[in-house]
Known about the structure:
Elements: E1 2-3, E2 6-7, E3 18-21, H1 25-29, H2 48-56, H3 60-72, H4 83-113, E4 121-127, E5 133-137, H5 139-142, E6 148-151, H6 154-157, H7 163-168, E7 173-176, E8 188-192, E9 195-199, E10 204-205, E11 210-212, E12 217-223, H8 229-232, H9 243-276, H10 293-307, H11 316-333, E13 347-348, E14 360-365, E15 372-383, E16 386-388, H12 413-420, H13 424-435, E17 440-445, E18 448-452, H14 456-467, E19 470-475, E20 479-484, E21 487-497, E22 505-511, E23 517-523, H15 525-529, E24 549-557, H16 560-574, H17 580-591, E25 596-607, H18 611-620, E26 624-628, H19 633-642, H20 661-665, H21 672-680, E27 685-687, H22 692-706, E28 709-714, H23 720-725, E29 728-732, H24 739-742, E30 746-748, H25 753-791, H26 804-814, H27 816-825, H28 831-836, H29 842-845, H30 852-877, H31 891-913, H32 919-939, H33 942-947, H34 957-961, H35 965-992, H36 996-1006, H37 1038-1043, H38 1096-1106
Parallel strand pairs: 14-26, 14-28, 26-27, 28-29, 29-30
Antiparallel strand pairs: 1-2, 3-7, 4-10, 4-12, 5-6, 5-11, 7-8, 8-9, 13-30, 15-16, 15-25, 17-18, 19-20, 20-21, 21-22, 22-23, 23-24, 24-25
Helix pairs in contact: 2-4, 3-4, 3-10, 4-26, 9-10, 11-25, 11-27, 13-14, 16-17, 18-25, 25-27, 25-30, 25-31, 26-32, 27-32, 30-31, 30-35, 31-35
Amino acid sequence: MSFFGLDCVRKKERELERKLRANDREYNLSFKYATNAIKTSKYNFFTFLPLNLFEQFQRIANAYFLFLLVLQVIPAISSLSWFTTVVPLVLVLTVTAAKDATDDIVSAICNLCMIFFPRADLLLLSSSEPLNLVYIETAELDGETNLKVRQALPVTGDLGDDIENFAFLLSGEVRCEPPNNRLDRFTGTLTYAGQKYPLDNEKILLRGCTLRNTEWCFGLVLFGGPETKLMQNCGKSTFKRTSIDRLMNVLVLCIFGFLAIMCTILAIGNFFWEMNEGSQFTVFLPRQEGKDAKFSAFLTFWSYVIILNTVVPISLYVSVEIIRLGNSFYIDWDRKMYFARNDTPAEARTTTLNEELGQIKYVFSDKTGTLTQNIMTFNKCSINGKSYGKKHSFLLDFSFNPLADPRFMFHDHALVEAVKLENPEVHAFFRLLALCHTVMAEEKTEGELLYQAQSPDEGALVTAARNFGFVFRSRTPESVSIMEMGQQRSYELLAILDFNNVRKRMSVIVRSPEGKLSLYCKGADTIIYERLHQSCSKLMDEFAGEGLRTLALAYKDLDEDYFSQWKQRHHEASTTLDDREDKLDQLYEEIEKDLLLLGATAIEDKLQDGVPHTIEQLSKADVKIWVLTGDKQETAENIGYSCNLLREEMNEVFIISGNSPEDAYALEHSMELEFLRTACMCKAVICCRVTPLQKAQVVELVKKYKQAVTLAIGDGANDVSMIKAAHIGVGISGQEGMQAVLSSDYSFAQFRFLQRLLLVHGRWSYLRMCKFLRYFFYKNFTFTFVHFWYAFFCGFSAQTVYDEWFITLYNLMYTALPVLGMSLFDQDVNDLWSFQHPQLYMPGQLNLYFSKKAFFKCALHSCYSSLVIFFIPYLAMNDTVRDDGKDVADYQSFALLTQTCLMFAVSIQLGFEMAYWTAVNTFFILGSLAMYFAVTFTMYSNGMFLMLPSAFPFIGTARNSLNQPNIWLTILLTSILCVLPVVTYRFLMIQLCPTINDRVIFKVRQAKAAPPPLPRRARIRRTSSRRSGYAFSHAQGYGDLVTSGRFLRRPAVSRSSGFAHTGRTTTGFSPMGRSAGYSPTGRPQNVKVNDVEVTSLQMYRTMDHTL
Length: 1107
């Protein structure tokens, strides 16, 4: 059953295996599998109000004010009208409820707008396409936009589209794995007509995929509703809270304790007053029976809990959410973070972490697609020990090949000559590239080929083979057709040993037209080396020092008898339901032995524009950048030098090889502290050969022991765990789908935008939030402390010093907009100066703007201001008369004078807090003061008193008091005394101990807000030689698809996101690296400087001396 949308059903036993029978409803219902109903909204019409109120009152502040409302209903306790608490509470609850309802409606609409087809996880039975193929797009599942293929079993595909055949002839039984969240695998069997058939992921249509180029298909429902793999992956993400949020929770609890102390002091004061002075009033104010001084003190305690409730600001959380929402819009609207080439703007996917962007200490970055473009170019290769691909030679002319890709570029004529001379090793090399892959080819017109590859590496390699005369043309489930030097040849495709993250290689077994049986294999170099024949030498040192992604190619000839026996065992393993993957891996290991090395490929993945400058800027801001990549050590190290992460002056480079025992145990519990201690001693950290799980473990390790704010940035599905583990996750929308973006808190298209996100938006958001909190606590504490001092002059009777309407409107109307205006528009320096002086970012890392110490200073300042605001008017009105000789020292005049002094004091203090005045800020401050006087004169008018005498008792107080010169002189004196210590303290601090902010602001004023000079950047030259390596970039799943008949037999509609051509293009990026010259001003930066600032600490000291 369900109550208010909360699942109250007892958790059923864990399902070990799913059993289904086609056309047997009674049998299937006996297992009580989930229906296909899915609830994506949080509320409905009937449950919204109770559920939302229940959630809101779980917040301490809201529950506290509800408790106050109950106290105010008790006449013996409350000295305030009910509306002083009800109005603020209802407003806060309403605003929050409206926000929650809007979010839930938008979420539901988004889910309704997603056209999911199919609506459940299905076993594909038949389709309208030849060989029962189905073409699907899985962008909603894994972010990939390339077309994928699924194919039904032939035994069910023969049933066609006749519904009667399915109803009467299909009577098979499916046994498969229980519901899980694995999108890349499926294990099951179909028993039909006495035969058992294996089921894998390539026969399944998942909820969330979209059919393309397919008229119809039939399927058997395996998982429905919440049991579908899509919904299994929709688990709740960890709720991320900022460090300021956690500090605020602690401070609110401290405020509660301080409130209890103040109320206790005043209750004790009431007890002694009643004992000493109260007895004198019993003549005309007799006490009720049984109510003595102790009971009076008890009631006074709760009365002051009500009066001093403003020390716990109820509107604080709502104001914080408004500020965060506004600063999120600034990120969404920032044109300087918009990437026009892909039409991709920056996006703040969360509104709760903006100020945390100004406190980042550690950045964990992926390499491929994050620092680099993930656009692969075939640059070099090594064949039979000879290297090809001279960097500075002329471009090759491929006019001899009519099927060549005109955008492919290569620089070594010797390789073309070797191909034309029919060098057997060279031909075997490119034959392997043309055969060993899972690329789909589409040929709309003769000679115009379009390749759809699941990874950029695959497309680059097949395109390279195409240009050198080995053109992949088409494929069927049983064959691969290629054009070898103008001659059409068809190879029988016997098996594909598919890629996965553990194997890091893929192989194909083919039979040539001459009947020769061969296995071709390509993969990561370390993996291939372990499987080479003893006679082979390892020729992988050809591409040292260039940061290229390398891939080893090998082959072996197979014996017919052995392969027949191996094929039989392969079929048996593929039909088993238990440990299918392990058994298949054992068979793959068995046949992939004693390989002969053909050579290696070297693919260049260029740096993105502006990466070196961005890393340089963040380093100056004392942000530690760690690169976590699955690539080989040498490749990662060379990219580190290219992007200025590593420099030549770093004489000692600490390295742990990916195959060493130290690396294997570095993240173990016993070694993690030593690993972290060693890494933190380094100026730069690059972790290579790491898995997605290890990336998340490194992030968690730093979070656990360093107590620093972390940020993880990546572009691929293998970065999702790291992005979710960090305090802030940033996704880059690149070539590897949208999974990283969908899991992130912020997203944009280029790594270089990270510096603007942190140094500008992050720093401003943190500065604004800290100013807001300091001022918010100041104005509320000052307001409340005046009540505390007044208690000593009113016999601790719980009488309020202000008018009740002023108490109600103080936070809601009089002081709300000015502080929001400062929190949304304030900035100490503009974005150009923020880039010019990255050291401005450091105070946020050290929590200098808001901390427990800053909160204590704010409380002391409020205490002083409240003393001035109470005692100056009190002394000024004591024994004072008006111009006409009448007495002005009445309670109502004193209340009006005190609250007016308070309004001027907090408004002037806000003016001192703001560093950036705008028309909006000015209007808010002056408008709030004007609103205060307008409302005051209206509520204190004769008309309002005649309408509701009990609600508006201050009749004529405003016009009778504010026309006196001594009243305005008192307001002026109070305001000056309130701000005088602030002005004095700030003047002395700027003169004696100026901060980096003070120095930069002074420099800005000297420059009269002119744009800063272009920053000088050091040109780093490097001549060292480093080995390069490559972690095989590929995905599992296409091998079985090709061999089992799931192929692109007939031309399909091409997709713009599919792989078309590889190589350098005329519309590519501008030259990158240290010569890219990216700057926030958009002007080139090519000025030489002699010295390089080594550490951020030295830079900081340099700034102190030079500014």
